[in-house]
Amino acid sequence: MDTTTALMLLTVLAAYLIWLKVISRFLSGPRVWPLLGSLPGLIQNANRLHDWISDNLRACGGTYQTCTIALPFLSRKQGLVTVTCDPKNVEHILKARFDNYPKGPNWQSVFHDLLGDGIFNSDGDTWRFQRKTAALEFTTRTLRQAMARWVNRAIKYRFCPILESAQVKAKPVDLQDLLLRITFDNICGLTFGKDPQTLSAGLPENDFALAFDRATEATLQRFILPQAIWRLKRCLRLGMEVSMSQSLEHMDAYLSNIINTRKLELLSRQEGGTPHDDLLSRFMKKKESYSDTFLQHVALNFILAGRDTSSVAMSWFFWLVSQNPRVEEKILTEICTVLMESRGSDISKWLDEPLAFDEVDQLTYLKAALSETLRLYPSVPQDSKHVVSDDVLPTGTFVPAGSSVTYSIYAMGRMKFIWGEDFSEFKPERWLNSDGKKFEAQDSYKFVAFNAGPRICLGKDLAYLQMKSITAAVLLRHRLTLVPGHRVEQKMSLTLFMKYGLLVNVQPRELKPIVEKINPGIYQRVEMVAGIA
Prior knowledge:
By secondary structure, the chain is an alpha+beta fold. 57% of the residues lie in helices and 7% in strands. It has two domains: 1-96 and 382-412, no CATH class; 114-378 and 413-532, CATH 1.10.630.10.
């Protein structure tokens, strides 16, 4: 190498290091390394990613900026990421400047094969049209009643018998797996009126469920890899892209069969056939003529949204409750109080049937405990948006067009400046009014577990209905304890799964002491009346 070439290389290197030093002054987050940006810190903390982001946000006052790739020509675009947990910024992104922060081209390309232009993978007019159509259905009482029927059927004939069997045999169960199965069966039933029966005795595998899992896993890998790499793997049919293609073909055949069958059933309904009340049928009854592909994407979008989120939330709920006996007792006291009023004092009658729709609606403290769970362990721990035009966030941070903004829902639940000194406590009471009898929703921009603004979750009420019904049924019948030595850790994925599942021992629940506290001497009076009779 001659002297001129060496000097040129040194000049380029010096210029790059000076640029990096200048850029680093404007970045307030984790350390930015040459070329690799903040990637080394992310890799080092991969097993505690959300806590690492929370630590950085706490140190920076709730918002920071970093470069994922430290290259000059990417600094104002893909390489720059703004991370925030400040409610003012979140409201700005999700509401005030909603149109400036869409999901963006990268997100849409990653999820397009699985979700198409469905409601959870679209922006603009395409999203608005689907949102308006779906909103009309989700506000109907009949849909909530349909959900209650699917949930209670699964609880009575599958979920409770499996837990009862585990209790009798003294065998531990993976509660997270059971919850994934029951929510999958329920959401499939509600979405397209067909029960895949993954929670049946013996816990059989279901081809559609397996294909759906493989497709979502491959989609997650796309989300992690640079776009150029996963696109190349798709073209060359390498790695998980092969299973992705096969899974999509299987799902297409499965859903096409359902849609074609439903068309015939709806036609026969006009002649007196059996009615259907699932979401797919509701869309097909509309005056608009939807393509089969559109109807498939409608179904898959709602399954993706309704399955993992509720099951993961309940997994963390049962773990938190098992660590907090005070909360468990208050939940049981509330359930028993409601059942005493509606079914009398005979405990055996409480266990004959799952809680009815109106009984579930009265479980205020249970809803508070589930909300507190989602505050600390949101099912979707973070979300990202694309920046269309240059903007300044309310906290003063400049975000250039072409960059991305990530808001950490997980971190929002762990900030003292948002929740106060007791932010780290599992405290359902923060969701109740002063006398503890009425549920009080928190500001939707500091609790965004169900999203907020125009994209707020349409199925929020259905999710609470399902979660309250299942958790009440379990706690009423069983006492769950963590298997000794079982590790409860977060799995790094788009949804906050437990990495090793949730292994619990199932033991009988003794309700008489709870009832005696609610109504002292009740059983003595019952026995006295029985003796006189």
